[in-house]
Amino acid sequence: MNNLKKTLTLSSLGLLTLAIQSAYGLPSRLEALNGDTDSRQHWQLLVNDQPYQIRGVGCAKAEGTGGVDYLHLAKKLGANTVRTWGLTHTDTGYLDRAAALGLQVAVGIWLPHPKARSLYQNPNSEELVRLRAHILTQVDQLRKHPAVLLWVVGNEVLHSADSPSERTGFLIFLESLIKEIKTRDPDHLVSYAAAESVDLQMLAQSAKSLDIIGINLYSDPRKLQRRKQLSGELRPLLFTEFGPRRPEDMRLDALGYPLTPTDQAKTKRYVRRLDQLESLSKQTLGAFVFRLGDPKPDDLHWWNLSYGDHPRAAYVAIAQRYQGDDWDDAPICKATPSSRIQVTPGTPLQLQISEQTLKQVRYGSHFWPVAAHVRTQPASTLLTPDLVSTTPNMGVSAPDQPGDYWLITHAVNANGTACMQRSSLRVQQP
């Protein structure tokens, strides 16, 4: 039997035709391919009747501290699509800049996490009615912008809802909101970003209006695809976050903090995951590597693909995969800049930031308190280190105030590429 090709999108009643407009004003649609030798659902996104695989990167803000142009970095990476997490930063200015660079946008619509309080148990509460109205007003304002590719409604909300009643209420709210968005904007697809595979069954049962199942994935995508099949879910996958191991997946150091992988270890992980993703090119719509943008301090080292506007090793490897161009290698930072983990205030420390000896490399270091209230603050000050050196060896003094710190070091090569590393340090009372 020949392959049966159908032009499709998804609804609770079946599979119907749906067109969307790309950033270039060309018609796009989802296409499902069913073959007699493979019972799995195969999908592809077509733009102007041509296959379009999303080569994405998360990019929360268009511009960062010091005028860093993150959307330009996304374009240099070879991405064709960027993802945001909320409408606060995804304004018309963001979309205009993306369109000027030829980038499409998966527009994030942030839905609050319930955390310690009950929020979604009454899906028609006054608070949620106001939230729904605010979101729909913004959708009305942005839906005709040529850079809008799809909506990502909510991010890991189910994962943070502890009680069954809270999850049930959220799913009722989510399904209702998706229906309203699609009524107002029938020209764009709608997704939700779930945490790995834990939400698949609930989404299959209670969020039938979703077009695409978004998954934030930090493990093997092939295993996720198999779990999706076992759940009975037929809708296409889109990896709304895609990256190396998370802090919660790592062993702890002597002070109880996650051991931080080197830039090179994370790069190998990205390459392996992108290879695995390539084998699923007809079963998924692509992925958004995580990420670009001004982060919290714990994000700056762990997740960011750049140090300001300086590409790191993972960025270089992803760029080679996305566009095949040759990139200069990034410098290598040591895994543990300091061998001492408990010191007294003001203790002199000798750092060896890198084992490489390279010309015209700038090295820097910074101590950052680990206290919870500090971790929620922007990490922009880390882009201006406390100390700078032209050699990989640097002498520093431990902070004067007792407490736990991250010692964050970096090196910027003459070619503009960079590396970062982080280790924990405890400053004790003398």
In short:
The chain is of the alpha/beta class. Helix content is 27%, strand content 31%. The protein has eleven helices and 24 strands.
Plain-language structure description:
- There is one protein chain.
- The protein is α/β, with parallel strands linked by helices and 430 residues long.
- It has 2 domains: 4-323, Glycosidases (TIM Barrel); 342-427, Immunoglobulin-like (Sandwich), CATH 2.60.40.
- The chain has 11 helices and 24 strands.
- The strands form 6 sheets. The protein has an 8-stranded parallel beta barrel with strand order 8-9-10-11-12-13-14-15, surrounded by 5 helices.
- It is globular and about 65 Å long.
- The termini are far apart.
- The model is unreliable at 1-27 and 35-39 (pLDDT under 50).
Which key terms come to mind for this protein?
eight-stranded parallel barrel, TIM Barrel, hydrolase activity, hydrolyzing O-glycosyl compounds, 2 domains, Immunoglobulin-like, 430 residues, five-stranded antiparallel β-sheet, alpha/beta, disordered N terminus, Glycoside hydrolase family 2 catalytic domain-containing protein
Strand count, sense and barrel status of the largest sheet are:
8 strands, parallel, barrel
Distance between the termini: 79 Å
Can you identify the CATH superfamily of the largest domain? Answer: Glycosidases
| Major β-sheet strand ordering | 8-9-10-11-12-13-14-15
| Beta-strand fraction estimate | 25-35%
C-alpha Rg (nearest Å): 23 Å
CATH architecture of the largest domain: Alpha-Beta Barrel
Low-confidence stretches: 1-27, 35-39
Structural class label: alpha/beta
From the 3D structure, determine the CATH topology of the largest domain.
Answer: TIM Barrel
Shape: globular
Give the number of domains.
2
Number of strands: 24
- Number of DSSP helical runs: 11
